[in-house]
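Question (not urgent): is this output format expected?
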Amino acid sequence: MKKVANGSGVTLGAGLTLNEIVANPGVRGNYAGLWQAAAQVATVHLRNMGTLGGNLCLDTRCNYYNQNYEWRKAIDFCLKKDGEICWVATGSKRCIAVSSTDCAPALIALGASVHLVSAQGERDVALADLYKNDGIDYLSRRSDEILTEVKLPQAQGWKSSYWKLRRRGAFDFPVLGVAAAVKTARDGTVEEARIALGAVSSRPFLTKGGELLVGRKLGHDAIAEAGAKVAAAAKPMDNTDLDLYWRKAVTAEFVCYALREIRGDDMSATRVRIARHDLSGVS
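Got this back:
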């Protein structure tokens, strides 16, 4: 991690491994949401090889696509590979394979941008604009461009959090990712807030839930309203693990967890319970 020349934030090389991100005290102290997201990707062994840039450019996944050749041939393939129909939504003209990156929603909530380089030149793109809601053509990055850096704005005044739902607590792709970042005044009033979702669409995206918090303190009612607003924007499909209606329903709960953690509540017991896949307290 290096300081940006104008002192406005930090720049992370896209080639940093996820474990290097996790081991960096500056990331953990100033960008907790990113640290939590990186720490929950796959396993320690894979985080030793997987990079930040690789996680951001991760291919979309689907139950009908992530199978062996014989299985896919038996159903006459699918729209994402060799077929002509999306088996998740047979009337859809667009592949709706799901985005499964953990770091992207965390970085989107933090207001990050990425630096793209090609023989034609260089450009910065807001991370939220890097993604398209298409399971096949899911990145706005051109084929001749390389993602070289991730740029984070100054962290002063901001707190962030990332919560992940997955089948196996030790390692797995997300079936829901909730990232929140909140900037507060000295009296606790919210000045800015962003809440992003992952694993409920073909792209990670920013929601309007954060707007409900501006000018208010992170009290129970404000947090609950933001959770309901974000849950309404979640549109999971039946193309990954766990029931899609339940995954939509628990979105509000996970938003509340993230915002309560940012508020300063001790959420460690809840994190342990979810990591063990004990979701008895989640509606």
